[in-house]
Amino acid sequence: MNKQIVNYYSKISPWGKVLVFIILFFMVVLIFKRIQGLNNLNEGFEQTDSFLFKSKVEDIYDPFYADIYDSLVFNNLKTNTRLEKLLTKLVQQAKVWF
């Protein structure tokens, strides 16, 4: 039986071998997905508190949000780099004008 399979596989064209490989790959993926589904290993976010919806502008920008926003937006390295590029372009344009 094994010799028949090997003999048949050796007679297949290169594209046929690629197709066989892809089919086997998808079969392995499906088997692993089925095993994972049976184990119920679901990762995710679980929230024990009820959802809190803030609609007033005063409530939306709490200290936590403001701290995260400041750390993302007000980065001295990015600001200095942007200022250097801006000043370089302004100097180049000033040289062209005068």
Care to describe what's here?
There is one protein chain. Helices cover 74% and strands 0% of the residues. It is mostly helical. It has 2 domains: 2-39; 57-97. It has helices spanning 2-11, 14-39, 57-60, 63-73, 76-97. 0% of the residues are buried. It is flat, with a radius of gyration of 31 Å.
**Oligomeric state as shown:** single chain
Number of strands: 0
Shape: flat
By DSSP (H or I, 4+ residues per run), the number of helices equals 5
Low-confidence stretches: none
Q: How is the main sheet built?
A: none
Please indicate the percent range of residues in DSSP E strands (runs of 2 or more).
Answer: under 5%
What structural class results from the helix and strand content? mainly alpha
- What is the arithmetic mean of pLDDT? 82
Structural domain count: 2
End-to-end CA span: 88 Å
Query: What proportion of the residues is helical, as a percent range?
Result: over 70%
How would you spell out the order of helices and strands?
HHHHH
Which radius of gyration do the C-alpha atoms yield?
A: 31 Å
Short description:
With 98 residues, the chain is mostly helical.
